[in-house]
Design a protein that fits this description.
Elements lengths: L2 H9 L2 H8 L17 H18 L3 E3 L10 E5 L7 H11 L9 E4 L9 H8 L1 E3 L2 H9 L3 E4 L4 H4 L15 H8 L4 E7 L7 E4 L1 H7 L5 E3 L9 E4 L12 H25 L5
Parallel strand pairs: 1-9, 2-5, 2-6, 3-4, 3-5
Antiparallel strand pairs: 6-9, 7-8
Helix pairs in contact: 1-3
Keywords: Acyltransferase, Transferase
GO molecular function, one term: acyltransferase activity
Organism: Hahella chejuensis (strain KCTC 2396)
Length: 271
């Protein structure tokens, strides 16, 4: 028996199998979609991630039902924590929600697909190179896509800047308007404390060809994580100026900021 089906038999519960039978995921005869998603890898990863989600980070989710049951959607969140843990937590929450679960796709930095083995694993889990062309094609296939408009400005921020949103790019708004896709804002609280960084060695990062080289304790702390999903935001398609696009982006950013503040207010302790 091949490894992935064997791991699926060993680690995946009947409950999670039932969840996945309700998720339509078109893949080819070899079990992959055009961006490398493999359902066996995805479900095994989710099964292995269950104790991390439930016991280690003790994740609370609020408003997950705001993500549409079907059709294209952009799930727009703040980014933090040096590693893309926030994206995996959001993906797990949506793939395992009780009603209308979905396997979302996560836009990742260009650096990750270049890492041997890690890049392939992320693709098989559902992550995709954060490229407008990829995003547009997946919206055309009515996928739900996790987007972090801050990019490395958010994930690589220092601990002293925690919960301060960095600049949002406008690209996600253009795609949402072109594909008439709702935007579901998300406020992530807790990932800022998972790998606190006190400095970034920029020359080292440049020499190694990586987005940043943080000075941090090489340990992922068990911070409590709260995910707040807001009401879907709809933006009319059509020709508008870039300034008007930016105003729409600011509206999304303000909603993400409000959801972060809500999570910080709800959180009783960091760990």
């Amino acid at each position: 028996m091949k490894l992935r089906p064997l791991l699926r038999r060993i680690f995946v519960s009947e409950e999670l199998e039932r969840q996945y039978t309700n998720i339509a995921k078109p893949v080819g005869t070899l079990g992959y979609d055009p961006w490398g998603l493999n359902v066996d890898t995805n479900i095994v990863t989710m099964a292995l991630f269950k104790p991390i989600f439930e016991k280690y980070f003790r994740v609370e989710t609020h408003g997950i039902e705001n993500i549409p049951a079907s059709g294209p959607a952009l799930i727009v969140a703040n980014h933090s924590g040096q590693l893309p843990i926030d994206g995996v937590l959001i993906a797990y929450a949506l793939a395992t929600r009780k009603v209308n679960p979905r396997i979302p796709r996560a836009m990742i930095e260009r650096f990750f697909p270049t890492v041997p083995y890690i890049g392939n694993l992320l693709n098989q889990m559902g992550a995709v190179l954060g490229d407008p062309v990829n995003c547009a094609k997946m919206l055309g296939r009515e996928e739900a896509i996790i987007v972090f408009p801050e990019g490395v400005r958010g994930s690589g921020k220092l601990y002293r800047d925690r919960y301060q949103l960095k600049r949002f790019g406008n690209g996600f708004m253009h795609l949402a308007m072109q594909h008439n896709a709702p935007i579901v804002p998300v406020g992530v609280v807790g990932c800022e404390e998972t790998i606190p960084a006190i400095a970034n060695i920029a020359p080292l990062a440049k020499m190694l060809g990586i987005p940043y080289a943080p000075i941090a304790i090489p340990f992922i702390f068990p911070a409590k994580v709260i995910l707040n999903f807001g009401e879907p935001l709809h933006f009319e398609p059509g020709e508008i100026t870039e300034d008007e696009v930016s105003k729409r982006v600011d509206k999304v950013k303000a909603e993400v900021s409000r959801l972060i503040d809500k999570g910080l207010h709800e959180r009783k302790r960091v760990f």
